[in-house]
Design a protein that fits this description.
The complex is a heterodimer. Chain A is mostly helical. A two-stranded antiparallel ribbon of chain A has the order 1-2. In chain A, helix 1 packs across helix 13, helix 2 packs across helix 13 and helix 5 packs parallel to helix 11. Chain B has a two-stranded antiparallel sheet with strand order 1-2. In chain B, 39% of the residues are buried. The radius of gyration of chain B is 25 Å and the shape is flat. The chains are: A mainly alpha, B mainly alpha. Chains A and B meet through helix 1, helix 3, helix 4, helix 5 and helix 8 of A and helix 1, helix 4, helix 5, helix 6 and helix 11 of B.
Chain lengths: 329, 285
């Protein structure tokens, strides 16, 4: 092999021994870290979930922890809260971001400055900005309540309010049959989430808009298409891969959301998970079973169920995308 | 076309603008205002006196820099910042070291099982961090790393996502370069150091930035693996300050400003790489 002139190396095997050893050596540091802190914990998590495990391991209990999770009203409530959270944030953040990106895409002066500003929320730590939001929505001193009072609307208890938003609306408008919905505390968190993500989503949409060839618009314009038709029949379909990507990130992100829910409820009332548990998402429930009350077996089972939900959602979205998303190439 | 007359400093400006464009600017400016409002309010409040906060004044009468001194003295923020900077820098160094080597091996070297190993790496991207938090916590305790720096650094010194990003970029470097370097008797390591890394600067900087932001903003993990103020990074420190000083809004805002403003300044200077990184991760990932 070594005697072969260069350029005529034998085809098989495709690797030389020295290079193969070197290759393994190069991936070794990363593999080592990932093995200990990324791959192994997945197996370990399943192992923990099959045991009664408070701070230390106590005994094998089979699927009892999973049974506890799936029969616990706490878990189903957390799932309901999480679904409210997804419905209340994802469509709004994507819709607003699309409008914003479309506006920014027009020929405007200072586009870079606007883009920088819109992106600001995304780069700040959610602990700091979440705390700022908690104070903005403070029932006593917050500027939001002061503004509401100034324009003649009733001040709210925001992060301390466990009643559903529809209940509050029904009371205000005297419509007796309106009640329920996500608590106002959860809605306050949703407002934060939308504020946090819109700029990021808009930036990605903007890149997507830039990749649509302008000849398509010109051709359609020659055929007499109006502004709305251009948007509806060219922009929207050609943006669908971007929209798909962003909705995937947003939905999965919702199921993983933690920091801002933690800090907003912690800073306002000292109760993580909000008034009457109305902002306790699945992740917060996991945290409570891990940190507040150390029931590690249950916490691991919750985390595993969460993992399965995220996996199913990703596969489902992939499947929908394969049918509905329009790719150019 | 409509002509608007704007009076500014005694001089009249005539701005010719179509109504549609006028509405466009109003909308995007309103959006920018909403995006910035929490920061504006935070900074304004950080300069107020306690009385002004409770009275609900929007603008402070005078700028009280002293709030920053008070906040800085009320909690060991200096220590928190140093901890965060140290943890972030060492994490970036480790992450780049493992990431560049692995990405290069996956992109340019031939060894048995390469594609399968890479595929297994990628498959684990689906696993949410929540699943690994608890077992990793137990591992850290077993290693005797509870309440140490290494507990906050070592687990983040390798990232599948970052390896993936770097590999994508390395693959884009023409194969001919390597063939030419090989002719000159260049080793893989020298080729990587003097050709691949310099040519991949945008990707390397982006990964460093992602690593930095991740480390700087980390909260849940440092919260559970630390127990003393000495080891805590800035986010965890900020949270305990928030909970303990709940009545002194102006001090909390000063603390939040100290945490947020450096990141904003940092972002404004590096945003070119952010946007590049975003489009790389967002549209091709």
């Amino acid at each position: 092999m070594a005697r072969n002139p260069r350029g005529q190396k034998p085809r098989r095997p495709p690797w030389r021994r020295g290079e193969a050893v070197l290759g393994f050596l190069y991936i070794l540091p990363a593999t080592l870290i990932l093995a200990v802190f990324h791959f192994w914990p997945m197996i370990y998590a399943v192992y923990i979930s099959l045991h009664r495990w408070r701070v230390i391991k106590q005994g094998y209990v089979g699927l009892a922890n999973y049974k506890w999770v799936l029969s616990s009203p706490q878990f189903w409530n957390a799932l309901k809260v999480t679904i409210y959270y997804v419905i209340g944030t994802v469509p709004f953040q994507l819709g607003l971001a699309l409008i914003l990106a479309y506006l920014l895409f027009q020929d405007i002066k200072g586009r870079e400055i606007y883009r920088t500003i819109y992106f600001l929320p995304y780069i700040t730590s959610t602990i700091a900005s979440g705390a700022v939001f908690a104070w903005m929505f403070s029932p006593q001193e917050g500027p939001i309540n002061r503004f509401l009072q100034k324009v003649g609307l009733p001040p709210q208890r925001w992060l301390l309010e466990p009643r559903g938003i529809l209940t509050l609306l029904g009371e205000y408008l005297h419509i007796p049959w309106l009640h329920g919905g996500p608590s106002l505390a959860l809605v306050t968190i949703m407002i934060f989430v939308i504020w946090f993500w819109v700029g990021y989503d808009a930036t990605i949409f903007l890149a997507g808009l830039g990749s649509i060839p302008s000849e398509l618009y010109e051709a359609a314009r020659i055929d007499g298409a109006n502004r709305w038709q251009l948007f509806r029949y060219i922009t929207l379909p050609l943006l669908s891969p971007t929209t798909f990507f962003l909705s995937l990130v947003a939905v999965i992100g919702s199921f993983k959301a933690f920091n801002h829910i933690f800090i907003m409820t912690d800073a306002s009332s000292g109760t993580v998970g909000g008034p009457l548990g109305t902002t306790t998402t699945v992740t917060i429930l996991f945290f409570k079973n891990f940190y507040d009350v150390p029931t590690y077996g249950r916490a691991a089972a919750i985390a595993f169920v969460l993992f399965v939900i995220i996996l199913v959602l990703s596969l489902l979205q992939n499947w929908i995308a394969s049918k509905r998303v329009f790719y150019m190439e | 076309m409509t002509t608007f007359t704007v009076t500014f400093g005694g001089t009249r400006f005539h701005v010719r603008l179509s109504l549609a464009r006028f509405i466009l600017y109003v909308l995007i400016t309103a959006g920018a205002f909403i995006a910035m409002f929490p920061f504006i309010w935070m900074i304004l409040t950080s300069f107020k006196s306690y009385g002004e906060v409770t009275a609900g004044r929007f603008f402070p009468r005078e700028i009280r820099w002293h709030n920053y001194v008070e906040a800085w003295q009320a909690a060991p923020f200096g220590r928190y910042f140093l901890n965060s900077i140290f943890i972030a820098l060492t994490t970036i160094a480790g992450d780049l070291f493992t990431g560049i080597l692995a990405a290069y091996a996956f992109a340019r070297m031939e060894f048995p099982g390469r594609n399968i190993i890479f595929f297994i790496f990628l498959a684990t991207l689906m696993v949410p961090g929540e699943l690994t938090v608890l077992p990793n916590f137990l591992t850290i305790r077993k290693l005797g790393w509870y309440n140490t720096y290494q507990a906050q650094i070592v687990p983040f010194t390798a990232s599948v996502f970052h390896i993936f990003l770097l590999r994508q970029f390395f693959m884009g470097i023409p194969r001919d370069y390597w063939d030419a370097a090989l002719l000159d008797g260049c080793t893989h390591f020298r080729f990587l150091r003097s050709i691949v890394v310099p040519l991949s600067r945008p990707a390397v900087v982006t990964v460093a930035l992602l690593s930095f932001i991740g480390s700087w903003n980390a909260f849940l993990w440092p919260l559970i693996v630390t127990s003393s103020e000495k080891m805590r990074p800035i986010q965890v420190g900020l949270r305990s300050f928030v909970v303990e000083e709940a009545t002194q809004t102006q001090l909390m805002m000063a603390a939040a400003t100290m945490v947020i403003v450096p990141i904003i300044i940092f972002y404004v200077f590096t945003q070119k790489y952010f946007t590049e990184g975003l489009t790389m991760t967002g549209l091709k990932g």
